[in-house]
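Customer ticket, subject: "Can you confirm the structure for DoxX family protein?"

Message body: Hello, I'm evaluating your service for our small team and ran a test protein. I'd like someone to confirm that this is what the system normally returns, since I don't have a reference to compare against.
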Amino acid sequence: MALSRLIARPLLASYFLANGAQDLKDAPALASQASPVTEAVAPILDNATPPSVSVPRDPVLWVRASGAVQVAAGLALATGHFPRLSSALLGATLVPSTAARYRFWEATDKEQRREQLTHFLKNTALAGGLLIASLDTAGKPGLAWRTKHATHDARREAALMGAKVKAAVAH
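Agent reply: Thanks for trying us out. I re-ran your input and got the following:
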C-alpha cells in the first residue's frame, strides 16, 4: 500500500470515529436536529422498499444507526479493510447528518450562520475526500477498465479464430 494511503485513510476516518461515537453517546439530544431529515427521508424509503419492510420513524434510532455505521466504517477505513465500501458508507451517512446538523440557511444570528456554514463546508470537503476514497482502486485497474479490455481481447480472439476457420475451410 502506498504511504499516502496508509496515512490518509486513518486521517479521513478519524472524524467519523469521533462523530459516530458522539452520535451513539448523545443520540437523544441530537434527535431533535435529525427529526426534520428523518421525517423527509422515511417516506422516500417507504416507497423504495417492499411493503414487508418497516422503515423506522424514531429519530433517536436513526442517529444511533448513523453513529454505529460511522464507527464501524470508520474503523474499516482506518485499518484499510474494504476502503471503497467503507468510504461509500461514510458518505451515505454524511449527507443526511450534514443536512440535519448544519442548517445554516435557517440560522437567524449572523455568527451562528457563519459557524453552521463553516461546518457545512467542512462536511462537503469530507464528502469530496470520501468520494475520492470510494473510487480509489489503489493503482489496480477497476472493473470498467478490465471489462473493456476483456471485451477487446475476446473480439481479437474471435477474429483470429474466424480467420483460422476460414483458412481451414478453404483448404
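A couple of notes from the result: The two ends are 55 Å apart (CA to CA). The chain has six helices and no strands. Feel free to reply with more questions.
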